[in-house]
Amino acid sequence: MSRSQLLAIKYLMAAIAFFGVMTLTGLLSAAYYVKPDLLFGLLHFNIAKILHIDTLIIWLLMGFMGAVYWFLPEEFGREPEGIWLAELLFWVFCAAVLVVALIFIFVQWGPGTEQTLWLFQQGRKYVEAPRWAAIGVATVMLVFAWNIVGTAIKAQRITGIMAILSINTVPLVLLYLVAFPAISNMAVDLYWWWWLVHLWVEATWEILIGCIMALAVMQLLGTSRKIVEGWLYIEVALVLGTGILGLGHHYFWIGTPDYWLGIGGFFSALEPLPLLGMVVHAVYDAGTHRMQTTNKPAFYWTLAEAFGNFLGGGAFGFMITLPQLNLFAHGTQWTVSHGHFAFWGAYACGVISICYIALQKFRALAAVEGRLWIWSFAALNFGLLGMVGSLLVSGMAQAFFERAIGGSTLEAFVATQENPWFVLGMDARLGFGLLFAAGYVALVWDLATLGRRAPVRAVAAPAE
Amino acid sequence: MRFDDPNFWRAGAIATTVVMAVVLIFLTIDSLAAITAGGSHVPPYTVINQAISYAHDSKRNHDMPVIGKDEPLFGRKVDAAEAERLIDKGKLVIQSRACIDCHTFMGNGAYYAPDLTKAWLDPAWDAWMAITEADSKEEAMARFLMEPEKYATWERKMPNLSISRDEAEATVAYLKWLASIDTNGFPIHFGRITVGD
Amino acid sequence: MTPQAFLATSGLLGLFVLAAGVYGVLYGMGRLRESQRLMKAATVAYAALCGIVAAIVLATPLGFGWKLLIGASAAIYYAIPPITWRHLHRTHRDRGAQA
User: Fold this and answer.
1) Cβ contact (<8 Å) for B191 and A414?
2) A chain contacts of residue B170, beta-carbon cutoff 8 Å
3) pLDDT of amino acid B152
4) How much is the pLDDT for A463?
5) Distance (Å, rounded) from C-alpha B153 to C-alpha B140?
6) Chain C: which residues have CB within 8 Å of chain A?
7) What confidence score (pLDDT) does residue B197 get?
């Protein structure tokens, strides 16, 4: 096993651990809606929420990095350049995340000064981590980019997938720089912030996961490189063709000119189209390859990715993406419902799939077997479906009673938060969240004991 | 050129990305001009010296902020430099307390507490002036921000975030300026109850 | 837009994309199993999608341009599964032959 792949296993383990923190703090955030005086005076909703959404970013990022480090030596036939630095930075990254979490829990906030932004809290959604930590994340990503690009230069060869991955590291690093400034004008601040959230998370990450899934499909199903690369180019063309100006659906209400209503609505309406192609592709792969794979969990999680992306990003997104409708639904639990489903489908399922692929080789399993993965797959997906369905009920109630009827005021907000439909949705969300958490526990147990519990048919080269 | 030739799609991917990115850059240049303070959609920070209201604009078919006569905040008219200092400070307070992780601003944030885009215009402040024994809306807002635990709201209470008098005044200034931004009618029907058909 | 019209329009748009998904899945399964019944079911799903588009066009307060966009999307949705399938089939066959 190469050093890069050992590092990949570490990153994937850390990703799964932070997935757990995200789940736990998600449950806590959901619990505040049911019991508002929970931990009052000790730990308020905003801190639980920060931990929930920041660990979401961290675990997915670590999952992607793990996946890339896993495939790099196979793609280039050599260890990545500067792997020693990446190994060192892994521990720095983990330690920094823990320190930031402790600061959030025990310090929480500071006075309204620049020093607070440097030391404790930046208070911008998804990038709340203080600047010193953001510098750390930027450094980790720079080294990650060098590991890919530097290796390609040294190896004097590059595959199509690695070329896309290499080019993608440029916006991946550059867009993250938006995590630093504290622009006073909120309209301008949000304008750039959406470059970080939409173009970073929904464009560069889409390309990153596209490359990762392309490599996964080659390994999982033995699909030829030419086929996979052809599809990857199509995906890049369609995702960026619709997604770059799809950014416009975030510019409806932040003070920007109203031409964004037309541009954002138009390109957002196109966004589900490539996702339908992915669904058809998944059906094709499921039908032609199902019997040949030796790693069913990885395969099923790959399918869940295609369907989840279509439903969460496509169907749930399209309900609220046209400006006339978004005007009512924006900033309600409806957005939360769409966000949970889309992140799950677009990224989380893919990272879990990679974990199974890497573990199969790491533990030298001829086939990944057992039943536990089915339980975790079912509980996580039904839990998620239940959560987004419940949030949809609450979101619809909020858009209807608070916005459309109530006039969007403080009084309308409070009245709707106490509306029986809204309350029902939030209670049910917590229940389904518990099911999701049970699925997470089963997933961890399955990953931890894979190959040690199920019969191993034949063993390939043992891991070092 | 065949559609199943990867080179066709590679060229397509590069061309699409470049075209879309160039269009985005042009739109960004135009949008930034509109949303800079003093631009066509975002008033200068000195707007905090004036009355702000919200009314339906039949030409644009949505609600628009209306800038009125002089109405200095906390009874003090401020110059451009002081207004900018207040807005800078207000934003730092909002970030340092992670307000956006409970509230939303222009619909972006955490949905646990009310949206603050037009909070300055909220009719509830009339009642809050009596509750906080304040003689103005801005004073009521500042008193609430400094000691939220003293005033009964509802079951989701706002915690005391150690906001000083200076910080509270800057935050109120920020919220007043925020309400003056043309947000294309968001949030909808603000301050009006609609009866459905 | 009235509150009721807002909810109805939004629901219809969600169902519109959902119907496209059902159509795509049934089409794929029909081709995979060479089943006429599944292909008919796919046709029914697409007919349902057309019904939803008709409801959007006739019964929602969306502007003409948006309705046109949704109509055009419906036509593209019709073409995506067969085009994707053909492309998949051809590329896999060609590579298989090359191998």
Assistant:
1) no
2) 112
3) 75
4) 43
5) 13
6) 1-3, 6-7, 9-11, 13-14, 16-18, 20-21, 24-25, 27-29, 32-33, 61-63, 65-66, 69-70, 73, 76-77, 80-81, 84-85, 88, 91-92, 95, 99
7) 42
Whether residues C2 and B4 touch (CB distance < 8 A) is answered with no
| Surface of B (33-52) touching C: CB under 8 A | none
For A417, nearest residue in chain B (alpha carbons): B112
For A361-378, how does the pLDDT look when each residue is reduced to its tens digit (9 = 90+)?
Answer: 999 998 988 899 999 999
C21–A310: do the CB atoms touch at under 8 Å? yes
Rounded CA-CA distance C62/C80 in Å is: 25
The pair phi, psi for residue A171, each rounded to 5°, is -65, -30
Look over chain C and give the mean of its residue pLDDT values, rounded to a whole number: 92
Distance from CA of A196 to the nearest CA of B (A): 14
CA distance A406 to B194: 7
Dist. CA B111–CA B115, nearest whole Å: 7
Distance from CA of C80 to the nearest CA of A (A): 6
Q: What is the pTM of this model?
A: 0.95
Task: Look at residues A176, A167, A147, A152 and name the one whose alpha carbon lies nearest to residue A61.
Answer: A176
Given a contact cutoff of 8 angstroms between Cβ atoms, the answer to whether A212 and C76 are in contact is no
Measured distance CA(C85)–CA(A24) in Å, rounded? 41
Instruction: Tell me what pLDDT residue B192 has.
Output: 74
Interface of B with C in 178-197 (CB under 8 A): 194, 196-197
Q: Which distant-in-sequence residues (6+ apart) come within 8 Å of A92 by Cβ?
A: A136, A140
Residues of chain A with pLDDT below 70 are: 290-291, 454-464
pLDDT < 50 positions in chain B: 196-197
Contacts of B193 in chain A (CB under 8 A): 405-407, 412
CB B107 within 8 A of CB A331: yes
Please give the Cα distance from A331 to B187 (Å, whole number). Answer: 9
Place of tokens 């690093």: A173
Q: How many CB pairs under 8 A join A and B?
A: 260
User: How, if at all, do strands B108-109 and B104-105 pair?
Assistant: antiparallel
B160 Cβ neighbours under 8 A, 6+ residues apart: B147, B148, B149
Cα distance between residue B96 and residue A414, in whole Å? 25
**B97 contacts in A (CB within 8 Å)?**
109, 112, 123
CB contact under 8 A, B183 and A46: no
Distance between CA atoms of C27 and C42, rounded to whole angstroms? 5
Condensed to tens digits (0 to 9), the pLDDT of residues A118-162 reads 999 999 999 999 999 999 999 999 999 999 999 999 998 888 999
Measured in angstroms, the CA of C66 and the nearest CA of chain A are apart by 8
CA–CA separation, B156 vs A70, rounded Å? 46
